[in-house]
From TrEMBL:
Keywords: Signal. Residues 1-19 form the signal peptide. Pfam families: DUF4465, Por_Secre_tail. This is Protein containing Por secretion system C-terminal sorting domain. The lineage of its organism: Bacteria, Pseudomonadati, Bacteroidota, Bacteroidia, Bacteroidales.
């Protein structure tokens, strides 16, 4: 729900601190796990989204606001790209609404949180919540275990408050500008979900009603009690963005913004040829104003003429925003042979090599949509006058391998009236994802359209579809699964062995390891044999150094650095009993600290002056260093186990 209450109320809410529950507190408080939207650990943001809206009041679907009984505020693309941290730049899901996000790289199960979800709450206690699920194939999803300890004996009203310390692993826990982190390690094992190749993140609004007929439940069976009802067009979870923290290599996404177009225009093929976007070639035919195959457009204006209106998507623009570019296809019929079979539109790799396609977003053209909805003298109104006719309009895609063998077909329905319940009939009016990964590696893609409205001369339904964000999955590199641990050892300590496969992973198979750097080889000898790192230490010598290890697979590599300290102090605490991780280092904004629960944190400048002192309450904490001057600082954690110190570089 869009939050527009009076500033005085906002001030009151944001000043309240409950801290009654066992979980992390609000953003900015000690022990909070909130991720700032400008955090340096964020690598990218969602590049695609599809949204299925929920009712504005699921307990009474007769309630309408602004002409609809479903949420309508915002557009799908408000969930794409960097979060705005405002009340308005969001898409509202409604009660039980769902948003599914895609990305330009695979999210992986790395060290610490792997991604974060941002909502638009105007304060720390007015919270609207959502469940989070992930998938590697778009079919099988795993839901994060979540906990809501808010009592459910009394319904939280539309403007009532929640205590964030009573909430765990539910998106919306933090105010606008701060994301709720999610760690893939929290998920139970599911053989159908690859935690090193997450392509989809799904956000499902938690309804918040305590009536069991409409309630949603956390992983422990508790009713999720949150503000309800919120009968506005902006009801439900308001999604601002999804940030990627741990990811693999950047994939290739053909978004067609690299093609030269004037605003509100299109490219009309006038001969046989092709255009390229990235490593892909899109084939077309053209002559005397007619064309087939692929072209591209950013046209949004309808003027009632066939020549122009055929290039307008029903969504009025591409997946990224209104007026953004997209590809458009016209599938012609084979009239020369008299069969009137559809002639496939084709996309090829420019060099003829095989690639693995992830998928693409598809939409109807405005012309096809209106024709199916209303019918014409030459085209059938889908469903017929009764609404019971089982009409359909579908896209079929298949691939051609390097040996010219043909893959299976992927089918997507752009309109479907075959349901016994007419309320389930639809003509697609937005962008939807079509997954192509089941095709495997191919050198070309082939597309046709088919319709129940066909006759002696082929398909009657206007044979167009729109495409955006066609994704090629590049070769994936190795990733870190956990940070290499720092080591503190006593003088003349025994050698230390580290099993590197416990910290690196590659889908490509065996990893090759090597030492990339050693800042103090006189003190520390680092040697790798196979997947084992052996650290040995010079006799009767103390000091410290940094060792970096690089892991390589399929020509790609990843590097991690860890600290080694040889201390002469009697009774020092070994790395096995007290270690913590602080990252990123160097740091410009927020510093994240792992394994520092119940520790006192002290940050001291090189002049010996303490600049920060606080308590860490959770195993994952964020400490803002944005206000500090650039330089070198000593970070000290003090616990019952002992003292551990790291050098931090502030940029």
């Amino acid at each position: 729900m869009i939050k527009t209450r009076l500033f005085a109320v906002f001030t009151l809410l944001t000043s309240l601190t409950f801290a009654q529950g066992p979980y992390a507190p609000a953003a900015g408080q000690p022990g909070s796990t909130a991720i700032a939207m400008d955090s340096s650990i964020i690598r990218s943001w969602a590049t695609g989204a599809e949204v299925v809206r929920g009712y504005i009041q699921i307990s009474d679907t007769g309630v309408y606001n602004l002409g609809s009984n479903k949420a309508s505020y915002g557009r799908h693309y408000n969930a794409m790209g960097p979060g705005e941290g405002t009340s308005t730049g969001v898409v509202s899901l409604g009660d039980g609404g769902v948003a599914t996000l895609t990305f330009d790289r695979l999210i992986v199960n790395g060290p610490g949180p792997d991604f974060a979800v941002f909502e638009n709450s105007f304060g720390d206690t007015f919270l609207e919540l959502a469940f989070i699920e992930v998938s590697s194939d778009g079919v099988n999803y795993s839901r994060f275990p979540s906990v809501s300890l808010t009592p459910s004996d009394v319904q939280k009203g539309a403007w009532d408050e929640l205590d964030p310390t009573m909430i765990h692993n539910l998106a919306g826990k933090y105010r606008q500008g701060f994301g709720t982190p999610f760690d893939l390690s929290d998920l139970e094992y599911d053989p159908m979900v690859d935690l090193f190749a997450i392509r989809f993140v799904r956000i499902l609004d938690a309804v918040g009603c305590i009536d069991p007929e409409y309630a949603t439940f956390d992983s422990e069976g508790h009713i999720v009690n949150e503000p309800f009802p919120t009968p506005f067009n902006s009801g439900g979870f308001d999604l601002d963005g999804v940030a990627v923290i741990n990811a693999n290599v950047l994939n290739e996404v053909a978004g067609f913004e690299d093609l030269n177009l004037e605003p509100d225009s299109y490219f009309l093929p006038e001969s046989a040829g092709n255009f390229t976007s990235g490593s892909l070639s899109f084939l077309y035919e053209g002559s005397s104003g007619s064309w087939s195959g692929f072209t591209y457009s950013n046209r949004v204006t309808l003027n009632g003429t066939y020549n122009d209106d055929q290039f307008v998507a029903v969504s009025r623009g591409g997946i990224e925003a209104d007026s953004s570019a997209f590809a458009i296809t016209y599938v012609s019929s084979d009239w020369m042979t008299g069969t009137y079979d559809p002639i496939p539109s084709v996309i090829q790799t420019t060099d003829g090599s095989e690639v693995l396609f992830g998928g693409f977003y598809v939409a109807n053209t405005d012309m096809a949509y209106i024709t199916m909805r209303d019918g014409t003298l030459f085209n059938k109104k889908f469903g017929g006058e009764s609404g019971n006719d089982p009409d359909w309009f579908r896209l079929k895609v298949w691939g051609l391998r390097a040996d010219n063998s043909v893959t299976q077909e992927i089918t997507h329905y752009l309109a479907d009236f075959r349901n016994e319940d007419n309320a389930l009939d639809y003509i697609q009016d937005d962008w939807r994802w079509v997954d192509l990964q089941p095709l495997g590696a191919v050198k070309s893609l082939h597309f046709i359209l088919e319709s129940s409205d066909s006759g002696d001369y082929g398909i009657n339904t206007p044979a167009y579809f729109c495409m955006d964000n066609l994704t090629v999955l590049n070769t994936q590199g190795p990733v870190l699964t956990a940070w290499l641990p720092d080591h503190e050892v006593a003088l003349n300590a025994d050698p230390v062995t580290v099993m590197l496969d416990d910290y690196f992973y590659s889908v490509q198979g065996d990893l090759a390891y090597e030492i990339a750097g050693n800042s103090n080889p006189e003190l520390i000898a680092a040697e790798i044999t196979g997947n084992q790192l052996l650290l040995t230490f010079s006799a009767d010598a103390s000091g410290s150094g940094e060792v970096s290890v690089v892991a390589t697979a399929a020509g790609l590599s990843v590097t991690d650095i860890f600290n080694v300290s040889v201390l002469s102090n009697v009774g020092i605490v070994s790395a096995e009993t007290f270690t913590f991780r602080a990252y990123p280092n160097p740091v410009s904004g927020s510093l994240f600290i792992e394994n520092g629960a119940q520790c006192e944190l002290q940050l001291t400048g090189m002049n010996g002056k303490m600049v920060l002192e606080t308590m860490l309450l959770t195993d994952m904490a964020e400490v803002s260093l944005a206000g500090l001057q650039p330089g070198i600082y000593l970070l000290k954690l003090i616990s019952e186990k002992g003292v551990s110190i790291k050098k931090i570089v502030k940029q």
